[in-house]
Amino acid sequence: MSSLLNYNGLYGDQYGSVLPDFFHCEPLSVRSAVYNWEITKHLHTDLTQIFIIEKGKGLLLTSNSEIPFEGPGVIIVPAHHLHGFKFEAHVAGDVITFSENFMEQLFKNNPNILYKINRLDYHSLHSNPRVLEDILYTKNRIMEELTDVHHEKLALQPLFELFCVTLYKIARHKEDRKLEIKNKSLKYFRAYQRKIRQSTTSQKNVSEYASELGITTVHLNRICKNVVQKTALDVIHDQLIREAKKYLLNTQYSISEISYFLNFKDPAYFTRMFKRHVGVSPSDFKKG
Q1: C-alpha to C-alpha distance for 35 and 282, rounded to whole angstroms
Q2: Residues with Cβ < 8 Å from 211, sequence gap 6 or more?
Q3: What are the pLDDT digits (tens) for 151-175?
Q4: Kind of pairing, strands 47-55 and 5-7?
Q5: For 150, phi and psi rounded to 5 degrees?
Q6: What is the predicted pLDDT for the residue at 18?
Q7: What are the residues whose beta carbons fall under 8 Å from the beta carbon of 256, sequence distance 6 or more?
């Protein structure tokens, strides 16, 4: 990849400035095929772009990541966002490009739509054929309006508004789905913590807890990673350490007795695990 390019216009073109009502639509292949289906990282100072990918695969290159995508789907690239592409050859789709001012004037009374669309994101439409149908229909009507040389572009604005409202609904649904998954994960995680607390003195392994929760160990580990960035086994150890600290600070039991209370058959293993998590041995922790 070459050094960062900064465009006032479309990729590969140089404009002195962009008109406030700039609006353009073209097949994705027009520019991508010329550059062997690889677009160097760059940004547009005044333009937002929406890529409608009908079929084919590729990578969306951002400032710090590579996001894989596969059609059908929509990619939104707001102005001032570093981006590039590695397309599979002959990807089918279109690109709609418009000035920030055009969008802001259109939705000045609907800031929620501006907020949702003004974020770099990829939305897969694999499982939503009805929305895909709406997107493609509106996009085709927009292209027809732009290429009709016999009439004024009177329908362009309402068609584009409809197009953006559909994008807004896609983004909102995606956020709602993420929240739903997050809440469900949190519910499982809290149930897992309760089960661990209830069986501190009769340790079970991760697979046993997962079975009680009605999920797989892989799913349980994924939930723990998402919620607390720890493995399911780490969560068990955290609870055991908390219980061990209570015994050490509030009772006169020996290290060996505490390890047996917590169902450790080997006090030496308990000591090693405690030191690994706390940084000091159980005896040193007890001394304060």
Answers
A1: 64
A2: none
A3: 777 888 899 999 999 999 988 888 8
A4: unpaired
A5: -95, -10
A6: 55
A7: 267
DSSP string across the chain? --S-EEESSSTT---S---TT-EEEEETHHHHTTTTTEEEEEEESSEEEEEEEEE-EEEEE-SS-EEEEESSEEEEE-TT--EEEEEPTT-EEEEEEEEHHHHHHHTTT-HHHHHHHSS-EEEE-TT-HHHHHHHHHHHHHHHHHHH-TTS--TTHHHHHHHHHHHHHHHHHHHHHHHHHHHHHHHHHHHHHHHHHHHTTTS---HHHHHHHHTS-HHHHHHHHHHHHSS-HHHHHHHHHHHHHHHHHHH----HHHHHHHTT-S-HHHHHHHHHHHHSS-HHHHHH-
**What does the pLDDT read at residue 1?**
35
Calpha distance 76→170 (Å, rounded): 12
Share of the chain above pLDDT 70, in %: 93
Residues in the chain: 288
Domain parsing of the chain, residue ranges = 5-178, 199-287
Tokens of 78: 């707001």
> Residue 139, Cβ neighbours under 10 Å: how many?
22
> How large is the angle between the packed helices 232-250 and 267-278, nearest 10 degrees?
100
Tell me the pTM.
0.63
pLDDT in tens, 205-244: 999 999 999 999 999 999 999 889 999 999 999 999 999 9
Assign 8 a pLDDT band (cuts: 50, 70, 90).
Answer: low
- Selecting from 2.40.10.10, 3.90.870.10, 1.10.10.60, 3.40.50.300, what CATH number does the domain 199-287 have? 1.10.10.60
In CATH, the number for domain 5-178 is 2.60.120.280
